[in-house]
Specification:
Length: 223
Amino acid sequence: MKKDTETSEKIGLFGGTFNPVHLGHLRSAEEIREKFNLSKVIFIPAHIPPHKKTRITPADHRFEMVKLSILGNPFFEVSEIELKRQGSSYSFETIDYFNNLFENKAELFFIIGLDAFREIHTWKRYPHFFSACNFIIMSRPGLSDIASEKIIPHDAVKDFTFNDANQCYVHRSGYCVYFCKITLLEISSTVIRRRLKEGKSIKYLVPDSAEQYVREHKLYEDK
């Protein structure tokens, strides 16, 4: 059931492999937190992402890099919930976990990139998401006319109406799919891993603490 937005704490859930976490992740989370007036953003490193077919750095390393990278920001937290589970990390389980954790008294905002959201129909039990939390879709500056993007999966579109004033889709449950144009930092974890493998600098692409951790543990050198 939809929370009372006037009294609920607003919490962002930012999942991903963070392999490694970089400044693009952090800047996006900060802009979203500010725009949506979120109480905090919880970073949730995935254990075994179902859609990733390549080898992934062990979860404990990815968790530690996020933990080090968000130090000093009182609005950022990191959760081990997906790391503690056995098997693949499914977002519907994570959303249910946090709704139960906050006893349904917090309004959750699931943060996801536009390209990933376009593939959400392939996620396990994806229709469940829309009646369990809000979504914030990170889109690139310059993207226009979201209403014509046919962004909502075909078999779920009947449950939504488009709110032109707020430029969001409203689910029959009352939860919304919002769009947030963020500063586009041309940084990717794939490029960072490649640069490390080639012995190139990653300075100013990742936080200093994350870079130090990578160097100390010799991560990605053979990836």
